[in-house]
């Protein structure tokens, strides 16, 4: 059997498996097989549904889906369909396989403690490392564990209860739970929007209070500057007050100025004898003589 140092062509490395629910653990194993040698050609054998169901069990993906998944892996150069469960010399010779890559854990199946035992004895086996925490069985375990969640999700997406193999009672239960979840989601959205509104109001209130404080300080400063103890208003008021006092206070008269003497006796009040007295004309000669006599008597009294 040729080795990597004696061949001028790419080293043909073979890796086989079921590759159900193709995942990152499969991809990392194929990456290791591809990079075992600087110049390599990776062939990947995929077992058929009949062979897999016979020796391992039922698969989630059918063989066509598993073939297609391997064909799109970047590390795979060629996919061998309907690969044998146990590698025979004839199969190795037909595909000119130089090395077989697989994890080193003994793989007991088909009545054998390790189906790769004869490959290891021939010196054609190259071990790869498994990726912990990920495998097809792990993924199926997650689905079984969370079966109710996935059943409810698929019912909500339009799958029928018959397609999901769900009983009538479970279907009604799942649909009711979906309605409850929708209501919870609506309530949650309302609460989130309410919180956002409250936060916006608080932010705006904080901004308004801060602006009000700034304006208040500015107003108080201007007020004190104008009306404070040493403010401009006091100075202006003092200046105007002094001007008004100067304007209102009379000038003092000279000491040597003459003064007017006043008589201590009381001047008689003026009489208005010069004013004409309006009298009505006498209606008769007797009345005229009576008025004349009264006037003469009045003159005598004044004398």
UniProtKB/TrEMBL annotation:
Residues of the Cytidyltransferase-like domain: 14-142
Start-end of Low complexity biased regions: 253-273, 285-296
Its EC number(s): 2.7.7.15
Keyword presence, Transmembrane helix: no
CDD domains: CCT
Protein family per UniProt: Belongs to the cytidylyltransferase family.
Name used for this protein in its record: choline-phosphate cytidylyltransferase
Organism of provenance: Myotis myotis (Greater mouse-eared bat)
């Amino acid at each position: 059997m040729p080795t990597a140092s004696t061949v001028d062509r790419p080293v043909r490395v073979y890796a086989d498996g079921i590759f159900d629910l193709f995942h990152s653990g499969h991809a990392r194993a194929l990456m290791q097989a591809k990079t075992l040698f600087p110049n390599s050609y990776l062939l990947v054998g995929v077992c058929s549904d009949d062979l897999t169901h016979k020796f391992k069990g039922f698969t989630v993906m059918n063989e066509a889906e598993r073939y297609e998944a391997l064909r799109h892996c970047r590390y795979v150069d060629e996919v061998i369909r309907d690969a044998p469960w146990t590698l025979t010399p004839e199969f190795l010779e037909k595909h000119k396989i130089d090395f077989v890559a697989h994890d080193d854990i003994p793989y007991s199946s088909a009545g054998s403690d390790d189906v790769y035992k004869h490959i290891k004895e021939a010196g054609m086996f190259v071990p790869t490392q498994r990726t912990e925490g990920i495998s097809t069985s792990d993924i199926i375990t997650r689905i079984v564990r969370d079966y109710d969640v996935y059943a409810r999700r698929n019912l909500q997406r339009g799958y029928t209860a018959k397609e999901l193999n769900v009983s009538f009672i479970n279907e009604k239960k799942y649909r009711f739970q979906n309605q409850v979840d929708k209501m919870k989601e609506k309530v949650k959205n309302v609460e989130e929007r309410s919180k956002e509104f409250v936060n916006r109001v608080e932010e705006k209130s904080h901004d308004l209070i801060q602006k009000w404080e700034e304006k208040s300080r500015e107003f108080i400063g201007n007020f004190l500057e104008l009306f404070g103890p040493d403010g401009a208003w006091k100075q202006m008021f003092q200046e105007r007050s002094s001007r008004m006092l100067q304007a209102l206070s009379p000038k003092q008269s000279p000491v040597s100025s003459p003064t007017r003497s006043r008589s201590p006796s009381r001047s008689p009040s003026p009489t208005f004898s010069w004013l004409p007295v309006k009298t009505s004309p006498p209606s008769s000669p007797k009345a005229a003589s009576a008025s004349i006599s009264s006037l003469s008597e009045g003159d005598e009294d004044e004398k």
